[in-house]
Write a structure and sequence with these properties.
DUF177 domain-containing protein, 3 helices, single chain, alpha+beta, YceD
Length: 202
Amino acid sequence: MSKNPFLFNTHDLPRRPGEMREYELTFEEHEALGFEVLAIAADEPIDIDLRIESVAEGILATATVRTEASGECGRCLDAVYYDVNESFQELYEYVEDPRQARKKNKPGKKRVNKTEEEDLDEDLVRQMDGELIDLDGPIRDAIILNLPINPLCEPDCPGLCPDCGMKWIELPEEHEHAPADIRWAGLENWSGGKSEPGPTEK
């Protein structure tokens, strides 16, 4: 059994252009997906509304991704929750018959040099694996590329007092700390009493 939870079998979709099927799916990623401060927790359900269509080149997948990310506010460290509701569309090309591919590349046939742009386009093309399409990359992109990298509990969250670490929102308006004078730092723990005499002073 594949370890990739996002593989989807398109066996039920006829390969005639114009044919379409729709599905409501739920996936679970077994590792957290996102950033340290905000991520989809491991085993958090990821709901997908998926539509697949047969086209001449392959299968066109259109999907909406819904799930919930959790983390902490970047200012006050309170827990935050973020609803993910994103869409994507990907074309999965049919894989050529290896025999046909060999005919195209057989010796004696003139080959046209590809431009860097064409090479890049080929790198971005997704291909089917038999009747399977791999939704892993598009789902990850739809989630991660749209998560805020500095999540906030409220847009105007004032954060924490840098001196005592308390939330500004819970502190009185007049809250402040006297600036410390580093010249007297060595006397902070001095009790004011006389020190014990050394051996030569007794």
